[in-house]
Amino acid sequence: MIIFRQNQALLSYLKKEKNNGKRVGFVPTMGALHAGHLELVNQAAKSCDLVVVSIYVNPTQFNQQEDFEKYPITPTADIDALLKSKCAVLFTPSTQEIYPNGIENLPFYNLGALETILEGTHRPGHFQGVCAVVERLLRIVEPNELFLGQKDLQQCCIIQRLLDLKPDIQVKLTTLPTVREESGLALSSRNKRLSNEGKKKASILFQALQNVGAGIQHGDLETIIEQQKQLIQANGFDSIDYLQVTDLYTLEPISVWENKPVAILVAATIEGVRLIDNIIIH
Prior knowledge:
The chain contains eleven helices and nine strands.
């Protein structure tokens, strides 16, 4: 595995590899890697000749400075994990490399309703920051294929919207299923901030999602969701931002299931750590 910290050196290396006919897969991360990230890397290696992983904690996507400051930074463990994976190139840029003109006056992305619902409601400005860093990374790496995890389903939809807005960025977006612990808890870098007891309690999120999925054919959605919110709170969660059934493609909320693909999404906080998860019902 080769580690690059500067854009130009990475660009030069990748240009040679592409000229030799190699197909590049890209996995952008903020570090604190877990088995979900490594699964993205290994799946990318199955369809691409060379896998690039980036680690960069992007300040523009945090709408709370405290959350940014608490984000886990584990460079040694991350490099060790990637050395055991099929990652060929690790890119660890500085903020100066990503935002050479600073983080003020960044481009505005017309994301439509996707930006104002669910995470957008609770994290204003978040998706503008996501688009800013992803566009920059894609223009540096210029991959053939981009690999993201379903756990961040709304972010996946946002990135697809970004690609629609920027047709000159020619990349295929591949979304892979969420990787979970045995308990059902979705793997997340934020899980590192939970106690062992907190992790056990947090697994109720997946159970609640499954319960909603099992019940949507048989009853009133509003009642089912309210019951599952009570279940989540009874298991030690401090607050619930949303538990919602939506159209799979637009993420607009639905009140009646009409036998079409839907997503069920949740965001809730336990031990001061905000967790998100979702499942898809076809």
